[in-house]
Amino acid sequence: MFLNKVTLLNEERKKGYPFNIPVVQSLTELELTHPVTYLVGENGSGKSTLLEGIADVCGFNTAGGGRNNQYEVDAAGSDLSDYLRLSWMPKVTNGFFLRAESFYQFASHVDQMGSYDAYGGKSLHHQSHGESFMSLFLNRFDGRALYLLDEPEAALSPQRQLTFLRIIHELVEEENCQFIIATHSPILLGYPGASILSFDGGAIQAIDYEQTHHVQVTKYFLDHREKFLKELFEE
Question: Which of 71, 87, 88, 96 has CB atoms 3.0–4.6 Å from 109's, for a disulfide?
Answer without folding.
Answer: 71
